[in-house]
Recover the amino acids of this structure.
């Protein structure tokens, strides 16, 4: 057995949102391949959860998505 890694994992390329239950601290990150899929997921989760748009991951860097709030 070795020590666990301390380096944070790189995110895969794609569009990311963060979803959490209302009035909770913990959240999960959800990735979608296309902007259309992301918009559909936002509409689906907004019905009963808090949704935060994180952005688009390109080569390990987060980039803001124009036109999505």
């Amino acid at each position: 057995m070795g020590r666990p890694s301390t380096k944070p994992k790189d995110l895969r390329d794609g569009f990311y949102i963060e979803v959490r239950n209302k009035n909770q601290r913990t959240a999960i990150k959800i990735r979608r391949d296309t902007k259309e899929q992301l918009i559909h997921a936002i509409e689906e989760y907004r019905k009963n959860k808090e949704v935060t748009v994180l952005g688009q991951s390109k080569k390990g860097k987060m980039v803001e998505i124009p036109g999505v709030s």
